[in-house]
Sequence to fold (118 residues):
Amino acid sequence: MEEWICGNLLEERAAAAALAEPRLLRNPENIRRVLAMLDQITEGLKNEENRKSEEFRVLCKALGYCWSVAVVADPHSGKKLMEKWLASQDRDVRWVMRENLKKNRLRKLDPAWVEKWD
Fold:
């Protein structure tokens, strides 16, 4: 997946979806690496020039659920990273993070935190 997250938008989308598999997120080292890769993919959104493309839309949509899966696996580290992105000036990045806040898995994990950032 580390190669795919450096690829085109559809490769990044495929990597994000594959990484957001709960069975992969049982080992602390895997969780750390998944959060780092999601962070890198999200960072790339800020530099994307063609934001109206279908590929960009599909990637954002995937990231709109992937983060919540990883955050549930490691709430302490995951919420810190999400908070960084929720405070971003980039509207697409904020949209991705707000979509994750809508997920029941996060609402069950920490309702007060979701409410604070929603």
User: Anything to note?
Assistant: The mean pLDDT is 95. The two ends are 30 Å apart (CA to CA). Residues 4-117 form one domain. The chain has one domain: 4-117.
